[in-house]
Fold this protein.
Amino acid sequence: MTLSELQALARAGQIAELNLLSLEGGFYILDIHAYERRDRLQDDSGKTWHLRSPGHARYVLRDLPEVPFYLVQHSAYDEMVGAAPSSEAPLKTPLSLWQADKDTL
């Protein structure tokens, strides 16, 4: 889903939540949960958009109306070779699309 598609769905109230997935290597991707589908934020060429930080995500999403927005971090131990599978849910922290103090931007 492109940013313009995401904006249109958000303005129509069709976004259930946005999950900013923290990945190994220090980058993030946006997992979009719409009421009719689930998708990832992509650029105009169809490649998954890699975001640099939660701040970068807020900047990219600055024109969206307020929707539920979460930072999701999976345990690094779940990815270790030979480790027993874990049933722990990932850490899901609520975020705001806007900074608490907009004067600092």
About this structure: Confidence is low (pLDDT under 50) at residues 100-105.
